[in-house]
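Annex B. Sample input.
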Amino acid sequence: MTFHRNRGKIVNEKDFEERLLGKLEEDLAEYDKIFLVSGRGRILDELVNELCGGKEAKNQKKKILALSSVKRQSREEASVTYRQITEEEEEWLGRFYLTYEFSDRFLLLSEQDSYGSLLRLVETGLLGMAQAVEALLY
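Annex B, continued. Sample output.
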């Protein structure tokens, strides 16, 4: 049996997974889109900042949640809810996403090498940051 440290408490793997899946189900019922922001990087950080406080994000009507283990500045005027999670939760949710890709409402944002990714289009200049945020919120 595998154990996980979760917010200072040690729990078994089954309880850990059930809690994360339960929370994800609740979040999918409440939010129109959920972004799992995995890691850090210049383009990713710019995209998250724009997503959490840019003009395009403020003008949309959808409820958006961003999850990340990286501590980020939260803005009061932001239309996107930001929730910090543990690195272990981020890793597990990332594996879950890559295994199932079950919803267009739960999306992974990462700078890992993926040549057709939205971040790669921004990095190469084929897409502006505002256009990338607009595409994510669509």
